[in-house]
Amino acid sequence: MSDEQVRWLLKVIQPEATLAALPKGASLAREAHAGLLGLPVEIYATELCRMQKEASEAADALLADPAAASMVDRLPLRKGDKVVAFGDSLTSDPQSWAVVLREMLARRRGTHGISLTISAVAGETTTHGLVRVANVINSRPDWILFLFGTNDARTQGPHPTKTLVHHEETARNIAELRQRVSGETTANCIWITPPAVNEAQVAAHRGRRLRSMKRR
């Protein structure tokens, strides 16, 4: 298996975040994470370390821009604030926006005792979020950063006829999430819009090409 394939597996499957969502999953060792992907633990650990290093380098590159550094300095976070990033694979990715933000906060606000916890699982929809949000509420955060809904719009098969979650159900789920966190916490909430999709890039993706070849 090539380095590119190993990296793709780590970014898509994300075993550490996926298994942590299961009962007692957080206590599983790295051997279990590597075994889930069928990889030797040494290869798994090396690639994960490389990806984490690149995320740190991305944070450094962003902070080299005085405007970006100033924005981090001006974030309305108080000393000791607990921040939770809540979402799906876009948040749990080893090189996600949340990982980079955590690195930036550590560099610019490291003496303020601000924590950023990532509570995200690859493949989840807003329906799954309703199940997991209780854990976030119980952690009594000061801020919750939501990025949910991308998987709701996913379709399956070569000629899909429906999304995983109907858009009206997505709206109801998000309304319920908002009601719960506003009623059960004093947290400030930030809702991040899922990124736009580049249809041409998706059509050319290696995974789509492989599925097309198999159908032939």
Task: Describe, in plain words, how this protein is organized in 3D.
- The chain has 216 residues and is an alpha/beta fold.
- Helix content is 55%, strand content 10%.
- The protein has helices at residues 3-13, 15-20, 30-37, 41-63, 66-73, 89-92, 97-108, 126-138, 167-184, 199-203, 206-215, and strands at residues 82-87, 115-120, 143-147, 188-191.
- The protein has a four-stranded parallel beta sheet with strand order 2-1-3-4, with helices on both faces.
- Helix 1 (3-13) packs across helix 4 (41-63) and helix 3 crosses helix 4.
- The model is unreliable at 210-216 (pLDDT under 50).
How would you briefly describe this protein structure?
With 216 residues, this protein is an alpha/beta fold. Helix content is 55%, strand content 10%. Helix 8 (126-138) packs parallel to helix 9.
Task: For this entry, give a set of tags.
10% strand; 4-stranded parallel beta sheet; alpha/beta; 11 helices; 216 residues
Determine Rg (CA atoms, Å): 19 Å
Poorly predicted runs: 210-216
Note the total helix count.
Answer: 11
Strand order of the largest sheet: 2-1-3-4
Strand content: 5-15%
The percent range for helix content is: 40-55%
Shape: globular
User: What is the tally of beta strands?
Assistant: 4
Average pLDDT score:
89
* Alpha-beta content class: alpha/beta
Please outline the helices and strands:
Layout: H1 3-13, H2 15-20, H3 30-37, H4 41-63, H5 66-73, E1 82-87, H6 89-92, H7 97-108, E2 115-120, H8 126-138, E3 143-147, H9 167-184, E4 188-191, H10 199-203, H11 206-215
Parallel strand pairs: 1-2, 1-3, 3-4
